[in-house]
Amino acid sequence: MNNNNVIEVENLTKMFGDFTAVNAISFEVKKGEIFGFLGANGAGKTTAMKMLIGISNPTSGNAMVAGFDVFTHAEDIKKNIGYMSQKFALYDDLTVKENITFFGGIYGLSRARIREKAKELIDELGLQDVANQLVGSLPLGWKQKISFSVALLHDPKIVFLDEPTGGVDPITRRQFWEMIYKAANTGTTIFVTTHYMDEAEYCDRVSIMVNGKIEALDTPKKLKAQFKVENMNDVFLKLARG
C-alpha cells in the first residue's frame, strides 16, 4: 500500500446472485483527503461503502483500508475507522454523556480517556446545557454534529460518513462541513457520500457511480472542465443520462 494512501481499491466487485451491485471499481484515497463518493439511489455507493468498512464481504477484487485487507482483516478495519450513518448513529434513549461513554467503551478507550474526550466534545460543541438530556429530545442537526464527534472519539485514520447532512437545514449543513474541514486538517481522511451536489464542491476529489461503476473521478474543478459545465449537478446529470 502506498504510504500516502489510506484506501486502495482495485476491481472491487459485489454480486447478489446474477445481479452486479458494484462492478470492478478502482480508486485510491489519500491521507487527509475529503473524498466524495456520489451516485443516485441504487448506483452501488452504499454497497461499496459496506465492503470498505468491513461489514460486507466482496465477491472479488482487492481493497486495503487503513492498511488492512477487507477480506482478511475486517475487524482491524473497524477498529481504525469511524462511521456515521444517517439512519443510525446515536441511541435516543441515552443522554449525550451516556452516548459518549458508551461509544468510547466500544472503541476501547480507557475510562479516564472517555472522561477527557467527553469534556472536550461537550465544550467544543457548546453542549453544557444539554449534556444530561436524552439525545432523542435534541434537534436533528445537533444529533448529526454529536454523531460526527463521537465517530472521531478514538482518533480514527478514516471517517466514513453516509449522507451525513440529509434532512438538516442549510446553516447546520454549513456548520457540519466546517467540522469536516477541521478534522481533515488534523490528518483525518473523510470518505463521504452525499446526494447534495453542491456539497461535492467542498470535496478535494469526487467519484461518481452510475449503475455499479465509477464513471468519473477527479477534482470538482477538473470534472466541470471535462464536461464543460458550470456546476457539479450538471456533471452528474450528464453522466446519469449517458
UniProtKB/TrEMBL annotation:
Keywords: ATP-binding, Nucleotide-binding. One of its GO terms (molecular function) is ATP binding. InterPro entries: AAA+_ATPase (IPR003593), ABC_transporter-like_ATP-bd (IPR003439), P-loop_NTPase (IPR027417). It comes from Mariniflexile aquimaris. The lineage of its organism: Bacteria, Pseudomonadati, Bacteroidota, Flavobacteriia, Flavobacteriales. It holds the Pfam family ABC_tran. Residues 7-236 form the ABC transporter domain. This is ABC transporter ATP-binding protein. SUPFAM superfamilies: P-loop containing nucleoside triphosphate hydrolases (SSF52540).
